[in-house]
Design goal:
Order of helices and strands: HHHHHHHHHHHEEH
DNA-binding region: 25-44
CATH architecture: Orthogonal Bundle
Distance between the termini: 37 Å
Helix content: over 70%
Oligomer: single chain
CATH topology: Tetracycline Repressor, domain 2
InterPro entries: Homeodomain-like_sf (IPR009057), HTH-type_TetR-like_transc_reg (IPR050109), HTH_TetR (IPR001647)
Largest sheet: 2 strands, antiparallel
CATH superfamily: Tetracycline Repressor, domain 2
Structural class: mainly alpha
Number of strands: 2
Protein name: AcrR family transcriptional regulator
GO molecular function, one term: DNA-binding transcription factor activity
Domain HTH tetR-type: 2-62
Number of domains: 1
CATH class: Mainly Alpha
Length: 224
């Protein structure tokens, strides 16, 4: 599935909103998509899958980008990769404002779609968390806390800015998202290296060795 999928889906999304999610039959959806009933079930399976079809493509994109990263990459390098992927995810989610707006309204109205959206959010978190967790490789227990915290933080920040974008479709949200993610990234980067120089390179914080407890506190503060 590629980026052209969303425009192809728009007639189906418009039909679901116009008639109601539960009132629309699979046959009607298949007709709106220009395919037979059997092709619909083979390609989508459910009405919920139609609504979130483009999200599946975005999940696949995120996984593919992460798979291209050198397995020996450090935790700090991986944090930066996730930062870049989050921004690309936002670009994909906002590529078709009409379909995004319809989907948002459908999700707000239909309980099972809310559940499906929550599952999608957890999938992004899990992908990032698994990619970031170098604790076993590096024998560093604090790295796991960093992976869990950063994955949760950037997904929450992305979703917040996406919801704000849905209210006004302003291009300003792209820059604001990048600024917010970069701010969190800067705080988490402190947790990737136990030797963190002070701002001036001198004084009591210069080359300070942070304990695992202090690293965990950095994670908690970044999420607060």
């Amino acid at each position: 599935m590629n980026t052209s999928e969303t425009p192809h889906l728009r007639p189906a999304l418009e039909l679901l909103e116009r008639q109601g999610f539960h009132a629309t039959s699979v046959d009607e959806l298949a007709a709106a998509l220009g395919m037979s009933r059997s092709t619909f079930f083979r390609r989508y399976g459910t009405k919920e899958a139609v609504v979130f079809s483009d999200q599946e493509a975005i999940v696949a994109m995120a996984q593919q980008l992460i798979l291209q990263v050198d397995p020996s990459a450090t935790l700090g390098e991986r944090l930066t990769v996730v930062r870049d992927v989050v921004l690309q995810i936002f670009e994909r989610f906002t590529a078709d404002r009409e379909s995004a707006a319809i989907r948002y309204r459908l999700v707000r109205e239909v309980e099972e779609l809310k559940d499906r959206e929550l599952v999608s959010t957890h999938r992004f978190e899990r992908i990032f968390r698994t990619f970031l967790d170098t604790s076993k490789r590096d024998h560093d227990a604090a790295a796991r806390a960093t992976s869990v915290g950063f994955a949760a933080a950037v997904v929450a920040i992305h979703n917040d800015h996406f919801r704000r974008w849905l209210r006004d479709f302003s291009d300003d949200h792209r820059g604001e998202l990048a600024t917010a993610v970069d701010a969190v990234l800067a705080r988490f980067m402190l947790a990737t290296d136990p030797y963190v120089p002070g701002a001036s390179g001198t004084g009591t914080d210069a080359n300070k060795l942070y304990s695992a407890e202090e690293v965990l506190e950095m994670v908690r503060k970044a999420l607060s």
